[in-house]
Every structure is written in C-alpha cells, then in structure tokens.
Amino acid sequence: MNVENCCIVIFGASGDLTFRKLIPALYNLHKVGRLGEHFSVLGVARTEFSDEQFREKMRDALIKFENASGETLDEFCSHLYYQAVNTSDALDYVKLLPRLDNLHDKYGSAGNTLYYLSTPPSLYGVIPECLAAHGLTTEEFGWKRIIVEKPFGYDIQTAKALDVQIHRFFEEHQIYRIDHYLGKETVQNLLVLRFSNGLFEPLWNRNYIDYVEITGAESIGVEERGGYYDGSGAMRDMFQNHLLQVLAMIAMEPPAIINADAMRDEVAKVLYCLHPLSDEDLKNNLVLGQYTATEIDGEMVKGYLEEKGVPEDSNTETFMALKCEIDNWRWAGVPFYVRTGKRLPTRVTEVVIHFKTTPHPVFSQNAPENKLIIRVQPDEGISMRFGLKKPGAGFEAKEVSMDFRYADLASPSLLTAYERLLLDAMKGDATLFARTDAVHACWKFVQPILDYKAQNGRVYEYEAGAWGPKEADKLIAKHGRVWRKPSGMMKKKV
Ligand code: BG6
C-alpha cells in the first residue's frame, strides 16, 4: 500500500508530543522517502503563531532531537503550516476551511485529511463535533481519518461516552486509536515469532507453559507530568492499554490472515476472556505501590509525593503487580503475572514464558527451567534458556542461553513506533490500532480493579530504585515463584 497525498492536521500543535514525537516521526519518514513529495502538515492550537514561527519552533526541535540539518530539513519545514484556532469554539473552525482548501490544491491531496488529536483528552469529544459542523468529516471529497491519543476515557463509563461522541461524527473505519506499544517492532514480532514458526506454537498453551511474566519497568519517575499522572496512576497509564495489548499478543489465537479485521477480532476475543476479578481475587492478587525518596548513586531521588504537581497526600499508585488468568481452552489455569512501575531499578519491557519442568527429574532436583525471554526494549531480542550438562564429573545441569539480538541483523532499519503508526494511518491500515471492542474489553477488566482500589486499595511504599514493594514479591512467592530481575542480558558481549 502506498501513501496517498494528504494533509496531516495536528491538534495540540504547540504541545510536547508534537515536537518531541510527531514532527520528528514525520521528518524521518520524509527523509527516507516514505511520505512522497505531496504532503502537508497543518499545526492547530490556540496560541497565535505564523507559519514561519511554527516552522522555526519545529526546526529547533528537529535539530535538537534528530540532529537534523541541511536541505532535507529545509525541504521538510517548507511543508509545515500553522493555524491558530480556539479549539473549543465550533465557530472558530471556519478558519480551517480556506487553509485546508489551499493546501489540498497546492499539494494535490484531493481532500485526504488525517486529523491527529494530541490535545488534552477533554477535547477528544469536542473536536470531532466542531469539525463536523463545517463538513470537515465527510468523505465526499477525499478520505478523513482521525487518530486519537490515549487515554480513551478515564474509566468504563467515560470510555463508552467518548466512543459514542466520536462515533456521532466518524465511522469506526475512520478512527485510529493509537497505542504506541503496538507500533514497536518487537511487539509486532511477538506475532511473527509465534505464528511463523512450527517450533513454538505447539508448546504455547496450558499443557507446556507454567506461567507468564510481563514486566514494563521504568527507571524514571513522573518527571514534569505529575499533574497528569496523579489522575491516572500506573493502572491507567500503562496497564489498561500498553501491557494488556502486549498480553493480547502473547495470548491471542492465530488470525486466519493478517488484516485489520482478522487481527483485531482475535485481540478482542482474548481480552474478553480475561477472568473477571472479584474483590477476593484482588485482595490476594493485586499489589499497588508508590515510590518514596531515597539516595541512589550518591544522589537524592525524590519520592512521588515530592514531585511537581502531585498533592502531598496522594494515594496514586506508581507501581502495580497483578496476577491475571485467561478463561479459554489454551490458557485455563496459567497465571499471567503483570507488573509495571516508575522508579524501578532499570528501564525494561519484557515477557518471560516459563515452561513446565520435565515430568521426572532424571539428573538433578534443581534442573534449570526452560524459559523464553522476549525483550521488547531496550537491547531488543529473544533469549532461550535451558539446561545443559555442567562440564566435569557427574550429570549436573546448568542454565545456558541461546540469544538473538535485533542489533545483529544486517540492516536493522527499524521504524520507531510513531513513524510506523503514522505511516499506517496514512495508508489506511488500522491493523495496529486499537479497535473499539478491544478498548472496551480492557476497561471492562480494569474497572473492578479501579473500584477495589477506590474502596480498599492499600498503596504500599517502596524506595525509589527497588523492584516495587516487598508485597509484590510475596504475591508471586505464594505460588512458589519469583519475579525475574532483568538486567542488561541482551547487551552485545565485547
Ligand atoms: C506512555 C506513558 O504512554 O508510555 C508514560 O504515559 C510511559 O508514562 C510511556 O513512560 C512508556 O513508553 P515507552 O515507549 O518509553 O516504554
């Protein structure tokens, strides 16, 4: 599929995401010739900028974040335009009509328009309505698509309400809900690993898998985003979307073919099979934590309550660990232990598939278990761990590993998540975007956790730089297991 000529309209163009992620992604796509010559980008926000001022601001960002320079940079910036609009006032959107007409004429983009909502979520319902008031959502003259950033709602009620609002003006095929984890090469690779090899899939079920660990750890704290994060917490910020999507990739059934409908049918199906959590389940299988100040490498690191924008009595979780189960034939009885947190010892996202041990231990009582470690980031790769004979007398088994590193591929020209997803949306390929039923299934699963937390949820303290509160270790130890403590296992050995 090729990219058709189009105009990309970014709402929230004066914000952080635009100059840190969106403009750099578009620049890189342009640099490698993936956008063609006939695209334009119209930034929209309340702040008054001229086209020139907007270009300068974006140029600075590209120099800073992408080391951009020379003709390619000038050429790219010449495609950037800006229009100030009061985004909550429908009448003001009239200013977009002549701008868009001119850009479509100039670039031959025949009305094709990709709207990107990179605004505060309170505007997600408003902008579609205001666009529709001026006929800017109909597909009579070119396609119209809308990319919506997370969060898609704050809980199940608001998520449903938002869906209704957007669907009043856009049809499902026009809506692209972005979850940048689905744009990560290594997350997509989970599917290829599973469904293009005869080796793994026969073992990929309750008969051979003992349990699965999914970790999304970050070493940074909430940084400048305390205000946003405090209303969100680890549950809404990482678990409800990114980690449940990763879980779906691990657990879904193979789609009959790879296209947006077939893939997303399977994703939604497995998410609807998540075992609903009762208060009793949550009492036993959920641990929430919040980081406290400590000294790391001689430097004092702030606790969550000292972060900018965070109320001093906040009960928001910056860590969560949860045991979930999937009620279907493939996974019945296999626990999925999922954890995520800020200010953990390292930044790592990984999945560990723990296989069952042999039925009878011939060589030693402590034979290493077989596991497949899928490192999503950083040092992307896959490591297979199994037991081999320890050299010397006797028959003692020791753990060895077979490792694959993405960095070893001859031309690892990976697109970043935003590059891949923007490109897909321009091509009209929604395979890697969350469909409404999957989003609903995630909220349906998460809502009881939010309710439980609101009523009884204790948030334990953990020191910044630790793997969460010790209660998280107890959660998994109850079942005779320990969390893997990931380190730089995939680093190239020199
Ligand atoms: C974002 C969250 O969606 O994902 C952030 O809002 C988090 O809090 C980020 O840091 C993690 O993304 P990545 O790609 O760095 O793992």
Automatic annotation (TrEMBL):
SUPFAM superfamilies: Glyceraldehyde-3-phosphate dehydrogenase-like, C-terminal domain, NAD(P)-binding Rossmann-fold domains. GO terms for molecular function: glucose-6-phosphate dehydrogenase activity; NADP binding. Keywords: Carbohydrate metabolism, Glucose metabolism, NADP, Oxidoreductase. Residues 191-484 form the Glucose-6-phosphate dehydrogenase C-terminal domain. Substrate binds at residues 180, 184, 218, 237, 342. Its EC number is 1.1.1.49. Signal peptide: none annotated. One of its GO terms (cellular component) is cytosol. InterPro entries: G6P_DH, G6P_DH_AS, G6P_DH_C, G6P_DH_NAD-bd, NAD(P)-bd_dom_sf. Pathway: Carbohydrate degradation; pentose phosphate pathway; D-ribulose 5-phosphate from D-glucose 6-phosphate (oxidative stage): step 1/3. It holds the Pfam family G6PD_C. It catalyses: D-glucose 6-phosphate + NADP(+) = 6-phospho-D-glucono-1,5-lactone + NADPH + H(+). GO terms for biological process: glucose metabolic process; pentose-phosphate shunt, oxidative branch. Catalyzes the oxidation of glucose 6-phosphate to 6-phosphogluconolactone. Belongs to the glucose-6-phosphate dehydrogenase family. This is Glucose-6-phosphate 1-dehydrogenase. It comes from Haemophilus paraphrohaemolyticus. The gene is zwf.
